[in-house]
Write a structure and sequence with these properties.
The complex is a heterodimer. By secondary structure, chain A is an all-alpha fold. Helix content of chain A is 72%, strand content 2%. In chain A, strands 1-2 form a two-stranded antiparallel sheet. By secondary structure, chain B is an all-alpha fold. In chain B, α1 packs antiparallel against α2 and α2 packs antiparallel against α3. Classes of the chains: A mainly alpha, B mainly alpha. Chain B: It is a multi-pass membrane protein.
Chain lengths: 505, 102
């Protein structure tokens, strides 16, 4: 492959975003510009997965500048898988946004495109400072999207979100400074194994990993996530849930494997923090009363699962973690989209004010149930394979407590999925409400009278359907993704191909 | 040493401001911490190296390292734009910039 094509993952969405600012023309053209780059990125991502499936690593110095000056772009099977999933989510969430009419806001589409461009950049870049820049490119549009779309209280949520993220980015920057001072480089190829040899570099990288952990919402620094995500529009929540925290998780995997070389003496910190994340996240969901806030707390819990893969740092653990990451991105977005379809149509996501939807919308019920079972980890969905391999990895590493917590948390996850199921899909439809109970959380752009109860539009159901079908396919044909994850894990364990590719030009 | 003390003061002041209730103070606090991080980045190139980093003047042990300076420029621009956005957020919506203790 001509490696000069790699930067296109970043450039094409940026270009489309720029065009969208000028094209005031027909709606179909604007929509094509929104969906086109993601669809193209999905195809390119599949191709990249195909090319990297045997462990090949592609590297390109942007602009053909020499090493140390150029921005390196690196793609191995791990980043290719992430790119593909990112593109899939961007495509599906954009479809959902078109169905809800979110995209009629002038700046919606450009912002989403800049966001995906930043995510692709962060996944591909091979140096820490550019990772900081691309994470900022990803965050800046999200600030706008969070405050622009959504329900009452979004400005307050926006304030929390921007404050936390700016502080975290500053911590990240301080970490970059420490690493540069200690190692004299921020290039990942040159930093390989540096933290294992030099405690100074380890301290700097520790600061960076701390910043990434805040961005990934690891307990005890998870509070911001639950206070911000439920307040924007459902399409945006789904997109954020799929991309933002996951970029941080990807970066933790990559940096720990590469710079720390999987140093075993820090792994216990991860084991403790991520086990707590699993347990506390799921308990937070118990007290919540709206579909989205329950799902957001689950997200925190699942982040603990995913990161346990890196905390175990065995081949099996890494493979399970990567598999879990891909599975989780898809399933969580599916759940947010199917409950978002209800929220958009009925104007509320509160469990008390919904009911009996399974009878009215059997297809949507099936979609939600599929994704929920997948999240809880039941066969034949991908969640089963993900959880099982992770539990086996933990047992294999003799981490009995961790394995036990994992299984217990799955049960609680299933229970609270049943809570949404019982509150929203089963049961009686609630009585029409009086005017004294004006809808407090009514979605700004879709509030309808609860008396009339319209049918949910097909175009709102399809995006969730695509994602749930994907998780079913991954579950049934698990060996394909498992093999790819195993290759990605092998690349993380033995970083020599990566380093050679980045430095060897 | 001067730089270390300056960074320390900036971060301490920034953290103090960030712990206040009002949004404007939080923004100012973040700006101070951001400047602290920028100075840290600046000093990571070695502040004793003061000569021009231009090839025509030769390249010696005293030549300044241009890379951290480029980093700082990028970081300043990003922090600046976000600060403007945060001030907008502080000005719109409900006013939580009050002195009253809750």
């Amino acid at each position: 492959m001509n490696t000069a094509l790699l930067p296109l993952f970043v450039a094409v969405p940026l270009l489309a975003a720029g065009l969208l600012l000028f094209v005031r023309g027909p709606l179909w053209l604007r929509r094509a510009l929104l969906l086109g780059p993601s669809a193209a990125a999905m195809l390119a991502g599949s191709w990249l997965i195909w090319l990297t499936r045997d462990g090949t690593v592609f590297a390109h110095n942007v602009g053909l500048w020499q090493d140390g000056i150029a921005i390196p772009f690196v793609a191995d099977v791990f980043s290719a898988l992430m790119l593909w999933t990112t593109a899939l989510l961007a495509l599906v969430c954009s479809m959902f946004a078109i169905a809800t009419g979110d995209d009629r806001q002038t700046y919606f589409s450009p912002l989403v495109l800049v966001l995906t461009s930043g995510v692709s950049g962060a996944l591909l870049t091979g140096d820490i400072f550019n990772m900081f820049v691309f994470i900022e490119v990803m965050l800046l549009p999200s600030y706008g999207l969070l405050a622009m779309m959504g329900v009452l209280g979004r400005l307050k949520a926006g304030r929390i979100y921007v404050t936390v993220n700016l502080l975290t980015s500053t911590i990240f920057l301080a970490g970059v400074a420490l690493v540069y001072a200690a190692a004299g480089t921020v290039h990942l190829g040159e930093l390989a194994g540096a933290a294992k040899e030099s405690p100074m570099v380890a301290v700097g990288m520790g600061v960076i990993i701390l910043a990434l952990a805040i961005k990934a919402a690891v307990v005890p620094i998870h509070g911001w996530l639950a206070r911000t995500y439920p307040f924007t529009s459902p399409a945006i929540t789904a997109l954020f849930s799929g991309l933002h925290t996951k970029v941080a998780i990807y970066a933790i995997y990559r940096l720990y494997a590469l710079v720390f070389d999987g140093d075993a003496k820090f792994l216990w910190i991860g084991l403790v923090a991520f086990t707590l994340t699993m347990a506390i996240g799921v308990m937070g969901a118990v007290g919540e009363g709206t579909t989205r806030s329950i799902l957001v707390f689950h997200m925190i819990s699942q982040i603990g699962y995913i990161l346990l893969g890196v905390a175990l740092f065995t081949e099996l653990g890494l493979m399970a973690g990567i598999f879990y990451l891909i599975h989780h991105m898809i399933v969580k977005a599916s759940l947010f989209l199917s409950t978002g379809a209800i929220e958009h149509t009925y104007g509320t996501g509160e469990l008390d004010r919904l009911g009996g939807i399974a009878k009215r919308e059997p297809l949507l019920g099936l979609i939600f149930m599929g994704a929920a079972l997948s999240l809880a980890g039941l066969p034949p969905f991908s969640g089963f394979v993900a959880k099982l391999s992770l539990v086996i990895a933990a047992v294999d590493d003799a981490q009995w407590t961790v394995a036990a917590v994992m299984i217990a948390v799955s049960l609680i996850t299933l229970m609270s999925m049943l809570k949404i199921w019982g509150g929203v899909f089963w049961g009686k439809e609630p009585e029409p409400e009086g005017s004294d109970q004006a809808p407090v959380t009514a979605a700004g752009n879709g509030a309808v009278d609860t008396l009339t109860r319209p049918k949910i539009k097909m175009s709102l159901i399809v995006p969730g359907l695509i994602l749930t079908a994907t998780t079913l396919c991954i579950g049934l044909g698990a060996h394909v993704l498992l093999e790819l994850s195993a290759q990605a894990a092998a690349n993380l364990l033995d970083t020599s191909t990566y380093v050679e590719a980045v430095l060897g030009r | 040493m001067t730089l270390a003390i300056t960074i320390g003061i900036l971060v301490a002041g920034g953290v103090y401001l960030m712990l206040q209730r009002g949004m404007v103070r939080i923004v100012l606090g973040l700006l101070l911490v951001g400047h602290g991080a920028n100075l840290l980045l600046m000093s990571s190139g070695g502040v004793f190296r003061r000569e021009l980093p231009l090839l025509q003047f030769g390249w010696g042990p005293q030549t300044a390292d241009p890379l951290p300076q480029a980093f700082v420029l990028t970081a300043i621009v990003i922090a600046f734009s976000i600060a403007i956005y945060m001030l907008t957020l502080a000005a719109s919506g409900s006013d939580d910039d009050t002195e009253e203790a809750s």
